[in-house]
Design brief:
mainly beta; four-stranded antiparallel sheet; single chain
């Protein structure tokens, strides 16, 4: 079955960097659009970044543009989110998501990112 496993979260100081990774299995990875979402306490889940099937198109939330970079490796079935210049407001649980060609979304379990001094 479809499995998405995130890793790389943790505690980082403001201005620091983290790299999140998502390992995918159980489906043809290159056929799926991949995204990163986040959800902070008391807030709705929001889209952070999106990458097309071949990686040629990326879209970012305004709040992370210029600081975050999404990438994928279709040979290794992984998608990553490089986060830099982190701010306290980036604190959230980050989720990896895969959208099937028919529009069905699969989700990972999430990884906590905490930005605090």
């Amino acid at each position: 079955q479809v499995q998405l496993v995130e890793s790389g979260g943790g505690l980082v100081q403001p201005g620091g960097s983290l790299r999140l990774s998502c390992a995918a299995s159980g489906f043809t990875f290159s056929n799926y659009v991949m995204s990163w979402y986040r959800q902070a306490v008391g807030k709705e889940r929001e889209l952070v970044a999106y990458i097309s099937r071949a990686g040629g198109t990326t879209i970012y939330a305004e709040s992370v543009k210029g600081r975050f970079t999404i990438s994928r490796d279709n040979a290794k079935n992984t998608v990553s989110l490089q986060m830099s210049s982190l701010k306290p407001e980036d604190t959230a649980v980050y989720f990896c998501a895969a959208r099937s060609p028919l529009g069905y979304d699969y989700w990972g379990q999430g990884t906590q990112v905490t930005v605090s001094s």
